[in-house]
Amino acid sequence: MQIRYIFFTVVLGFCLNLQAESLKIAPEDLDDISQQRHLLVQSMNRLDDIGKKIQVAKSEKRHAMASVKRLDKEVDEARLNLEKMQRFDREVPGSITPNVMREAQDKNRNVSRELEDAKIKVSTNDIEINSLSSSANEAYADYLLRQKSYVRDIERIVESQLQKRLSTLQVKKEVQVTSKVACANDSIPVCKERSKKAAEMDASERGSVVFVDSLTEVKNFQLSKEEVRSEVQATLTNKVFSNQHFVGDAEYETTITATVEPAIGTRLREQMANTIRSQVNAKVGGKIDFSLVKNPSVFASSQDESSEVPYVPVSRDQSRRELRENVVEEPQQAPPPRQEAPAPQQAAPTPSTPSKQIRPIFTF
């Protein structure tokens, strides 16, 4: 049994060396895949630049829409204020000075112009976003083509290197192994059959190349029997059983001579392919995480209106003032009379019988 452990330790070292050996890729293939990777990265950078421009345009649009919302209110206030002045001036001629009237007219005109400019800005942003979205779709289509070609050529190299390694590993061997099993209460035919099965398994282990990854537990540089058998697959041909007899009273021994053809299973092939793929990526500049690449036009086409106008936090003083106003408006929470704030100054009401001698002061 100790001989078997030493053998598998040697085989393990051979396989790990085989796994870590340097790839020998044809220079023309290496140059081609490196150039493809360079162009693919350029395509990804172009998508990233378009995505950043879309983010800027979307942000500017949100600000412009916020301005439109704010200016809509200011235009209404300026118009109503001007109409109020004009109406009062008609009822009480000369009560509004020309300067005050002119300022009101200028403010009404200016905020109206600002509102139109803000609307134009929103429209301009929409045009820019649509244009960038179209560019993003073209750039993403180009990226997908380059990605498909790059991955296909990487996998072609991986498959070629994998076949070379498999041809080195899958070599037929002539082996002879003697195994024995404890019979316990088994009958002689049953114990004999168990001994033959054990001999076949030991022959498979002896003739197979064991491939393990770095996660396989190795104790004292030896693989346990269960770990070895979980990794080994092989085909036995030309089997000859001999020297079948009892050893003592409780064990049965069988010798097998056979041709062993190692078989690398699916899981082992995947482990080898992943190792080769990592080596190829390292040679051409590193692995690319394609899952991080998105089409920026998806972001550009987002129509969530709630995100168009960002939340603008009010100042602390303004929050306190609004809180005080809300408290005053609620009778059940009104402060005692001695603590009530003085009522805000109200504009003088329009007299029912205007007289030229009355010249109220307005602060519009």
Report on the structure:
With 364 residues, the protein is mostly helical. The protein folds into two domains: 2-22 and 172-285, no CATH class; 27-168, Helix Hairpins. It has helices spanning 2-20, 27-91, 98-169, 188-207, 225-231, 266-284, 296-300, 316-329; strands at 173-182, 234-247, 251-262. It has a three-stranded antiparallel sheet with strand order 1-3-2. Helix 2 packs antiparallel against helix 3 (98-169) and helix 3 (98-169) packs across helix 6 (266-284). The longest helix is centred in the middle third of the chain and has 72 residues, at 98-169. Mean pLDDT is 76; it is low at 1-20, 211-223 and 305-364.
| CATH architecture tag of the largest domain | Orthogonal Bundle
Sheet with the most strands: spatial strand order: 1-3-2
Return the structural class.
mainly alpha
Helix share, percent = 55-70%
Largest β-sheet summary: 3 strands, antiparallel
- CATH topology term of the largest domain: Helix Hairpins
DSSP strand (E) fraction?
A: 5-15%
Shape: elongated
CATH C-level of the largest domain: Mainly Alpha
First and last CA, distance: 104 Å
The value of Rg in angstroms is: 43 Å
- The pLDDT mean sits at 76
Strand/helix succession: HHHEHHEEHHH
Q: Please, how many domains?
A: 2
Count every beta strand, where a strand is a DSSP E run of 2 or more residues.
3
Short structural summary:
This protein has 364 residues and is mostly helical. It is 61% helix and 10% strand. The protein has two domains: 135 residues, no CATH class; 142 residues, Helix Hairpins (Orthogonal Bundle).
